[in-house]
Design goal:
This protein is mostly helical. Helices cover 69% and strands 0% of the residues. The protein has 2 domains: 44 residues, Arc Repressor Mutant, subunit A (Orthogonal Bundle), CATH 1.10.10; 183 residues, Orthogonal Bundle (Tetracycline Repressor, domain 2), CATH 1.10.357.10. The termini are far apart.
Length: 240
């Protein structure tokens, strides 16, 4: 065991060893026996610390994802909220490709509950980025729908890239998908970017994004009613 590992707590050694085994050989390589040997602990220690392998995998995923989230939160907001969304997308895909096994554990089977806390935090960050676009009057649809679209598309692209051989991965797959999604959800920059576009919808979305700030002026019932009206204004017109 290295001097660095010796200074780490048994829990941290187990998490690090499991992450390294996952990266080197996938899920099958991270058996309790292999983890115990790599971390220099007895098998019962793993169960005392994490309950079972599912608990250990959750801890590993959360640890790795927390590092990624820290890099996202460390970036100060830029002048263009859509560019911030673009950078967030790229960071997400980059993390997934570099941490394929951890990403697959978290996103391939959400019902397994791996990395649940980290996923919720990531969801909150995405909502914050989308809300900034809405507040700038540049979001075509509601914040919730836009966040779901971005999440679904980004997840799909990342899992697709993970499933490909490294030499077959074309960065344009992510770039083209990203730009298509952003074009469908956002408007151009500027005070009045689309004079012939859906101004009522985008402004309704913008107002709803900051509606909570009217709590001192409107009653809770009035806010709910206003929110419903704004949703109707932001919705696409029915097909004729």
């Amino acid at each position: 065991m290295s001097k660095e590992a010796a200074r780490m707590s048994p829990r941290d050694r187990i998490v690090r060893a499991t992450a390294e085994l996952l990266e080197a050989g996938g899920r099958d390589a991270a058996s309790t026996r292999a983890v115990s040997q790599a971390a220099g602990v007895q098998v019962p220690t793993i169960y005392r610390q994490f309950g079972d392998m599912a608990g250990l995998l959750d801890a590993v995923a959360s640890h790795r994802f927390a590092e990624y989230l820290a890099s996202k939160k460390a970036r100060p907001p830029g002048e263009d909220p859509v560019d911030d969304l673009r950078r967030g997308w790229d960071l997400h895909v980059e993390f997934g490709v570099k941490n394929a096994e951890v990403y697959a554990l978290m996103y391939s089977d959400p019902a397994a509950g791996v990395g649940t806390a980290a996923l919720k935090e990531a969801e909150g960050i995405l909502h914050g980025l989308v809300r900034r676009v809405a507040e700038a009057g540049r979001l075509r649809v509601g914040v919730e729908l836009a966040a779901r679209v971005i999440h679904s598309a980004g997840r799909g692209v990342t899992l697709t890239l993970i499933g490909m051989r490294p030499e077959d991965r074309d960065p344009r797959l992510s770039e083209i998908t990203r730009e298509a999604v952003l074009a469908a959800l956002t408007t151009g920059a500027g005070t009045d970017p689309e004079p012939d576009g859906p101004q009522v919808a985008t402004r309704a979305v913008a107002l709803k994004a900051v509606l909570g700030e009217a709590a001192d002026t409107l009653t809770e019932a009035e806010i709910r009613m206003m929110s419903e009206w704004l949703d109707r204004l932001a919705a696409p017109p029915p097909a004729r």
